[in-house]
Amino acid sequence: MPDDALEPTAPKPTEAATPPSTPPATPPTAETVFGDRVELAERYVAILSDTGISHGLIGPREAPRLWDRHVLNCGVVQELIPPRESGQQVIDVGSGAGLPGLALAIARPDLELHLVEPLQRRTGWLSGTVAQLSLANVTVHTARAEALWDRLQAPWVTARAVSRIVQLAEWTLPLLEAGGSLLALKGSRAVEELAEAHTALTRLGVVSAGVEEVGGSVLAEPTVVLRATIGDEVDRRRFRSRQPSSAGSARRRADRPRGSRRTGGGTSHRGPRQP
Fold first, then answer.
1. How many Å apart are CA 187 and CA 145, to the nearest integer?
2. Which residues contact 137 (CB under 8 A, 6 or more apart)?
3. What's the pLDDT tens digit per position in 209-229?
4. pLDDT tens readout for residues 175-191
5. Which of 30, 80, 82, 144 has the greatest number of beta carbons closer than 10 A?
6. Sign of the C-alpha dihedral computed for residues 170, 223, 104 and 227 taken in this order
7. Burial zone of 247 (CB within 10 Å; 0-12 exposed, 13-18 middle, 19+ buried)
8. Is the dihedral angle over the CA atoms 27, 32, 34, 36 positive or is it negative?
9. Residues 6 or more apart from 255 whose CB is under 8 A from it?
């Protein structure tokens, strides 16, 4: 079977037999991040602790810390995206369990989220979760990021990044509109990594880059975000000559069950409209 064959969306028998975990208690800070949509965030956490685990998108040991380490950690990234009267689009690359994409969609109904994930097993789960939460501002794409370069652009691209920033930039910068920014959620080495990557990022069209911390008032450990902003345009020709890859698979290799395959580009699933 070719590498880009689609996976079946149904969980494997061993996954289906995994008992659901009890959702962790909602911390008081959740309302600070999600406001009057905190109940929607609670439903999302409940789904993560149930089918998110049984489908292999979240490790069972993560259940007790779904709020602090995952949902709140991602939700606070909204601080870096200023509101606009007309709304704006955000492309979340390698969405996996919807982090940070679904957390942002819940926190900010003014944003239009595009969740990009190459594995159909995951996009099937994402589409089902979007439907359960009745999120009208989410579109799910079964595709590699590279497959959408000519079809989708936005002022913001997000990624919860395991990959090095240069590799991530090679996958995602062509998705940005002129002057747009990549927001990569990173770990403690973000400053060092940026220093090492500065020259390479400049060659790719990045005009400014820095490391910021958000959520310090609600999280014990702030979320570290590496922001890379492009200029008026990105020369996509220099990206097309590079080896195709999959930002989604790189994000969560440890979560992928054995025997899973990458998908090819292009199937989209639209979330239901609010009544």
1. 22
2. 105, 109, 110, 111, 112, 113, 271
3. 999 999 999 999 999 999 999
4. 999 999 999 999 989 99
5. 144
6. negative
7. buried
8. positive
9. 56, 57, 58, 59, 96
pLDDT, position 107 = 98
DSSP 3: T
Q: Find, among 251, 270, 257, 230, the residue nearest to 74 by Cα.
A: 251
The dihedral formed by the CA atoms of 263, 270, 140 and 261, expressed in degrees to the nearest 10? -20
Instruction: Compute the distance between CA of residue 275 and CA of residue 273 in angstroms, rounded to an integer.
Output: 6
User: 18-22, 50-54, 108-112, 221-225 — which is least confidently predicted?
Assistant: 18-22
Q: Which residues are within 8 A (CB) of 110 and not within 5 positions of it... i.e. 6 or more apart?
A: 83, 84, 87, 88, 137
| SS3 state at 121 | helix
- pLDDT-derived band at 85 (thresholds 50, 70, 90) equals confident
- Rounded Cα distance between 101 and 183, Å, is 12
Q: In angstroms, what CA-CA distances link 118 with 55, 76, 121, 122, 125?
A: 16, 25, 9, 8, 13
Q: What is the pLDDT of residue 242?
A: 58
Residue with tokens 């685990």, as numbered in its chain? 53
The DSSP letter of residue 65 is: G
Model pLDDT for residues 228-239, shown as the tens digit of each residue: 999 987 777 677
Model confidence pLDDT, tens digit, residues 41-83: 999 999 999 999 999 999 999 999 999 999 999 999 999 999 9
